[in-house]
Design goal:
Elements: E1 6-8, E2 14-16, H1 31-39, H2 46-61, E3 66-68, E4 86-88, E5 96-98, E6 107-109, E7 117-119, E8 128-130, E9 138-140, E10 149-151, E11 159-161, E12 170-172, E13 180-182, E14 191-193, E15 201-204, E16 212-214, E17 222-225, E18 233-235, H3 245-250, E19 258-260, H4 267-270, H5 275-283, E20 289-291, E21 300-302, E22 308-310, E23 319-321, E24 327-329, H6 350-355, E25 360-362, E26 368-370, E27 417-418
Parallel strand pairs: 3-4, 4-6, 5-7, 6-8, 8-10, 9-11, 10-12, 12-14, 13-15, 14-16, 15-17, 16-18, 18-19, 19-20, 21-23, 22-24
Antiparallel strand pairs: 1-2, 24-27, 25-26
Length: 419
Amino acid sequence: MTNINTACVKNNASYQLNNALPNKETISSNFCERLAQWGNKSLNNGEERAIAVERIKEAYNSNMASLDLSYLDLSELPPIPSTVNTLNLEKNCLTCLDFTDNASLVNINLSFNKIKTITFPNESKLENIYIDHNNLENLDLKNQHSLVNLEAQNNNLTKINISDSYKLKFLNLDYNKLASLDLSRQESLIELSAHHNMITDLILHNHPRMKKITLNDNHIAHLNAKTTTKLEYLNLSNNNLLPTDDIDQLISSKHLWHVLVNGINNDPLAQMQYWTAVRNIIDDTNEVTIELSYNLAITNIDTSDEHLVEVSENSEGNHIKDNDSMSIRYRSKYYSREYALIEEETIFSDAELKAILPMHRMYGVGDYKSNSSSLPSHSGLKDPTGTPVCYYIHNEDKPSLGFGPISNNWLSQSFTTEL
C-alpha cells in the first residue's frame, strides 16, 4: 500500500499529489498508475480529464467523502478514491460502468449518460441511486440491501431485479418498457411511480407505508394491492382495469385525497362501481379530488356532505346530484391555476344551467346578447377575488358552460361553481 504522490495526464502534464499524509487511509499501489493511464488516454476531452484528475487528487488529499465529476464529457469511469461515498457523474458520456471496487459508495448520481451496462459492488452500502435518462435494458441490483431510493426513469428497461432491496422507500421507473413488476418484498415503499410502461402484471403485497401510486398509461388489467391503508394519491389512468375486490380495497384508503382514473374504457369502471368506496373516503376527509376525464362515460355522481370533488374533461358527464352543500370544481384542460376553470365544452343539463343563472348569454359566434338581470349571489359563480362571473351558451340545443368575469377580460379569469 502506498500514498499517491503524482498522477500524469495527457500532454505530459504532471499533477502532484504530495499533500497526502502518511497516516491517512492509503490506496492500493496500482491506483496512481491507473489514474495516470486514465488521464493520458488519447481522447478529445483532455482538458476535462485534467479537471477530473485534479478533483480526484483533491478528494484524496483532503480525505473528502464527496466527489463531483459531472458535466465533464467523460466516456470512461476514472479510478475513485476509497474515501468517497458520494459520487456525482451526471451529464457525461459514460456507457459501461463497473463499481465492483467501490464498496464505500452510498450515494451515486449517473443521470443523463449513455449507460448500457453497469455493475455494482456485491452487498454495497448504496442507499441512493440516480440512473435516470440512460440506455439501460436490464438493471440488476441483487444484494443491494441498503437501497432506499432508486430513480431509473427514462431508460429502455425490460428487466429489473430489486428483490433484495427490502429497505426501498422511493421507486421511479417511469418511461421504460417493463411488462411486469414484482414489489412483494418492498414492504417499506412509500412512493411508487412506473407510469408509461407496458405493465400488465403488478404484485403489491403488504405495503402499509405506501402513500403515492402513479401507474397511469400501462396495460394493467388486475392490480393485486393489499394493505395500502395509508394511500393518499392514486393514478390508474389509461389502463385496462377490470373490476376486482383488490381495486375496491385499494381506493378505500381513509387517507386517499386524489384519485385519477382517466381514459378507462371499461364499462363497470366507467359507471363508477367504486364510487361507494370513494364516498366512504369523502365522509372521512376535508377535501378529496377525483378526476374522471376524457372518454369516461360517467353519467351520475351522487355525493353528500361539504366536500370538494373535481370532475375534469368529462366527455359524457353531466348529471351531478347533491344536497346543495356539495362544492363541485371543474378543471379546464387548457389552464392550470390554483382556482379551476369551467371548460368551454363541458355539458350540463337544463336543471344545472338554471341553477347557475347567467348574467350574459351568447348564441353563436359573434352574436352577443346581454341579460338585464343581475347574477344572483347564491349562484356561487365567482373569480378568485370574489367578483361575479358569467357563463355563455354556444348552442341552445347542446348547452356548454363558458367562463369569465363580467368584463371584457373574461378569458383571463377563473372561478368555481357551488350548486
